[in-house]
Write a structure and sequence with these properties.
The protein has 396 residues and is an alpha/beta fold. It is built from twelve helices and 19 strands. The strands form three sheets. Strands 1, 12, 13, 14, 15, 16, 17, 18 and 19 form a nine-stranded mixed beta sheet that branches. The two termini are 37 Å apart.
């Protein structure tokens, strides 16, 4: 690991900090690993975890199995269409944004787009929009994949559709509308895909999570199959059934009804995915902050660095010192907006002006803090590409 610190110091010598980067050797390795893990199943690229048009395009050029995109915003989907991308599912329900984004115009132009619904109100709203514009809007039904135990909601609070009966009621409502069409079904098993099951220093917690995941996998597969079979038996012709995430590829691809698996974070492999039982990807994205003072022995204070991940507040949302190995945040300051003290007692001789390389807890959120990503390949900077922020875009 010491060698890796020196490697990146040489690669980025003279580069003004802070900056963010992606190592294309590791990025491509993770892409290939994703394809292997997915077997023969097509992969839907979760753009929320990438937030960089150039890297989305790189993946699609690498394999035609990266055949579709899961966007997190209608305006983002419209933006991606403008960049020449297509076959986009907007993974979260939208209301006024559907009009503001010009989604109808993109559909009229021939773009393959689908908007998310899980209630009659959302369907009626999109149907009225389609009627006003004389366009049929494809929609995707979001089904809830959380597992409920006594006193524990294992998963995220998403859709209200949990049973075949509820799905059929919504399908019949959609069928009765003239300007929406049910195009697909999506179910995201976040409790399996996005939850570490080998957390360091927490053996019993890991064991409990693995046990809960094992039970949840069975329930998720049964629920998704029952809902999809019920819809098809009722005459619904689904173009796609989307499931999974980086952390659940192996189990999701085993489900017969699933036609594509969604993956995003696994290409950058942020700190969130360091401690999973079934797989390991290589860290491909990071950022560098500069040591600007030495307030005490073994303390190196850097400029900036407080790029906190979304979710329930806690220390696990903080970015983590990566290189040099052994560096760590202080307990009382953590990572700050204007300064981040780092404790380091290892063998590297650190001085003012040297970098501390950090990793974000999540994947795409890093791109909200930087206009560009430096692309590294075979030990040298080969390109600098814009993030969504660098493109002047802010979707949520």
């Amino acid at each position: 690991m010491s060698g890796l610190y020196h490697h990146y110091c040489e690669v980025f010598q003279g580069q003004p900090m802070p900056f963010a980067f992606v190592d294309l050797n590791q990025f491509d390795h993770n892409a290939d690993m994703t394809l292997r893990r997915a077997g023969n199943m097509p992969v839907c690229l979760a753009s929320k975890s990438l937030r960089c048009v150039a890297l989305i395009q790189r993946l699609q050029k690498r394999s035609d199995r990266f055949h579709s995109i899961m966007a997190y915003s209608a305006r983002e989907a419209a933006f991606l269409c403008g960049q020449g991308l297509d076959n986009i599912l907007v993974a979260y329900p939208v209301w006024s944004e559907a009009i503001a984004a010009g989604i109808v115009e993109k559909i009229r132009e021939g773009k393959t787009l689908a908007l998310m619904v899980d209630s009659k109100e959302q369907v009626d709203h999109l149907d009225a929009l389609g009627r006003a514009e004389n366009v049929v809007i494809p929609v995707c039904m979001d089904i809830d994949m959380a597992t409920r135990y006594p006193g524990l909601h294992f998963g995220v609070l998403r859709s209200s559709i949990t049973t075949p009966e509820q799905a059929l009621i919504l399908w019949k409502h959609i069928r009765g509308c003239g300007h929406v069409r049910l195009d697909g079904v999506m179910g995201y098993e976040a409790q399996i895909a996005g939850l570490q099951d080998r957390p360091p220093g927490a053996f019993w917690k890991g064991a409990l999570v693995r046990s809960l995941k094992k039970r949840s996998r069975r329930e998720v597969a049964e629920r998704r199959a029952a809902i999809v079979h019920a819809l098809r038996a009722a005459g619904c012709e689904l173009r796609f059934v989307n499931g999974g995430g980086t952390g659940s590829i192996e189990s999701t691809v085993k489900e017969d009804v699933v036609t594509e698996v969604a993956v995003g974070s696994g290409f950058y492999s942020p700190a969130q995915f360091d401690h999973y039982e079934q797989f390991h990807h290589e860290p491909a994205a990071g950022f560098a902050i500069e040591i600007v003072r030495r307030p005490a022995q073994h303390v190196y204070t850097c400029q900036g660095g407080g790029y906190i991940a979304s979710g329930a507040a806690g220390r696990d949302r903080l970015p983590q010192p990566w290189l040099p190995q052994g560096a760590k945040l202080t307990a009382h300051e953590g990572a700050g907006e204007v300064q981040t003290p780092v404790i380091y007692q290892g063998g590297e001789h650190l001085t003012l002006g040297m970098p501390i390389f950090m990793r974000h807890f999540k994947a795409g959120e890093l791109c909200e803090r930087f206009n560009t990503l430096l692309l590294v390949e075979n030990g040298r900077i080969v390109d600098e590409v814009t993030t969504y922020r660098g493109d002047g875009q802010c979707f949520v």
